[in-house]
Amino acid sequence: MRGWRALGALLPVLLLATATGCGIRATDVVEAGEPATVEVAPAGQLGTLLYFVSSSTASRLLPVVRNVGPEGYGDEDGRKHGGPSGASAAVALLLQGPNAAEKAAGLRTELPGDLVKVGVELSEQGVQVTLTLPVTGLSRAAREQLICTAARARTADRTEAVTVTGTDGVIGPAHCSV
What we know:
This protein has helices at 2-19, 86-96, 100-104, 140-154, and strands spanning 47-54, 61-69, 72-74, 80-82, 107-108, 118-123, 126-131, 162-166, 169-174. The chain is 28% helix and 27% strand.
């Protein structure tokens, strides 16, 4: 009986210690400096982000960095190919689909092959992409691939308005939601 009384007297003290956080005091915010930065393209080369679909999740887009220079774009071996530059190159590369390394990493595309002609115009209203394929029937993931790639090719801001015109109609203006 005596042990129960001692336990009864000790119980409020234990509850109070638990309720007060065991002696851990609150602190103010500690400044740690600027956020970390990462170089995503090798020095001396321009990079663009392409958005591909993760094979593990049907609608999840993942960005991939590809090299793009003023004279054209490069393949996974770094060889240059003549062709479009800037936003046009980004959309053209997207339509080619993931390269071997990206496929091995589980990335795929929901866009048709690269036999599509691409036109890109940049204006104050945003990015105007013109493709020689039907676009209104594209899946949500395919639309997002186009919109996010075109928006990021213009600026680092995903809120850039993108309008995609195809042989059957227009998508947008829309913004990247990834």
